[in-house]
Amino acid sequence: MRTIKSGGHTLLQQDQETSRVVAEMLGDIERNGMDAVRKYSRRLDGWDPPSFELSTGEIAEAVSRLSDEAVRDTAYCQANVRKFAEAQLATLLPLDVEVRPGVVLGHKHIPVNSVGCYVPGGRYPMFGSAQMSIIPAKVAGVRSVVACTPPVARHSVAGDSAAERRATSGQGYYPATINAMARAGADRIFVLGGVQALAMMAFGLGVVEPVDILCGAGNRFVTEAKRQLFGRVGIDLLAGPTEILVIADDAADPALVACDLLGQAEHDPNSGVCLICTCRRGVSAPQDAEAFARAAIAELEKQLAVLPTRDVAALSWRDNGIVLAADSPEEACALSDDYAPEHLELHVLDTDFYVNRLANYGSLFIGEETTVAYGDKSIGTNHILPTGRAARYTGGLWVGKFLKTCTYQRLTPAASRDIGAVTERQCKLENMLAHAITARVRVERYAE
Questions:
Q1: Among 299, 342, 345, 424, which one carries the catalytic annotation?
Q2: 2-10+241-395 and 33-103+111-235 share one CATH topology?
Q3: Is the pLDDT of residue 213 over 90?
Q4: 33-103+111-235 maps to which CATH number?
Q5: Each residue's pLDDT tens digit, 27-65
Q6: Which of 343, 368, 383, 424 is the catalytic position?
Q7: Sequence spans of domains, the chain
Q8: Is-catalytic flag, 331?
Q9: Dihedrals φ, ψ of 53, to 5°?
Q10: CB neighbours (10 Å) of residue 335?
Q11: How many CB atoms are located within 10 Å of the residue 59 CB?
Q12: How far is Cα of residue 98 from the mean position of the Cα atoms in its chain?
């Protein structure tokens, strides 16, 4: 392996100052309720409406400011997300099995009662996050979904049409986000951002009932709030800056590889961007991989010079861009698994070789025909994924996250007598005599 370009691999780390600020805010909000929520909204976002919750009329008015095409495209994307979530749900079957005569064990998948979904704003109005959290929750059978999104006065990323540009200004919220939240199935929609939004959903505060799970991405304060609230409520996962890793062999298109790397680099100056170049088994040599790596870097620099979002992407590439040349496809797989990226693209001829060996990634994009943007926006898989090497031990958000897999047991009297005798002896070995008695009384009750 040769390092062609080195850079950081941004991990999700706990910032002590962020932790302190979030802890103070959560404590204040828990003590002082909606007065504190309103204080932080006013101070941090300049947002102090009569009600943070949008009425049915306000939702309809927001949707009316979108073009028909924008509404249709969102419906297209949401249909894909819903269809995939429904297919996932169909794989989660109840279980009822007799493991010994008269001993029946099983499990049921029970949806949580309520979910709070956070749809981020910030640099970009990422309204696609609405369907990624709300739709799987609703498909799972969650009764109540509360959705929050931060306010905006005027957004830097406007739509292509004049109507969509007007839709971003002076309303306090981004209409495409409201449309996505409503059509995904949110039961209540609040224009409220940051820590105060998560606290409202977790604590309830009389405005909403406390939710059971918080989900959705956000900035470091949102992530830290989820960390501190975990235990009181469930969370989906802790996600830091986005990441892309591309494995490319020397037959790939360096221009297309560079394009996809920059596609993620524009997210955030801390985005992780990694390219692992390798040779084709029995066809090319390690030096060909290194030549491809240098060609891809040259192409990336060329595209970066004219990229509309280069101010952000250039920082990400400069500080976090990594390019490695692997000596073999096996080494490429090992390097990728060690990085454990959020998004992993395969620009290789022998895709099956890699699919069968790779183990650590949030979502896998197989072949040059697909790209991370498809997964982020429209194809139907979930884009709320593990970052910071968390893909070593977890996958991303999916319909199963909103289900509790709860076991049960049912016995006949004869089976209770047989199990009871063994249980009593095991309890006595542990000196748990009250436990032993509960087993003994059943042995005696169901004696032949």
A1: 342
A2: yes
A3: yes
A4: 3.40.50.1980
A5: 999 999 999 999 999 999 999 999 999 999 999 999 999
A6: 343
A7: 2-10+241-395, 33-103+111-235, 412-445
A8: no
A9: -85, 135
A10: 18
A11: 18
A12: 37
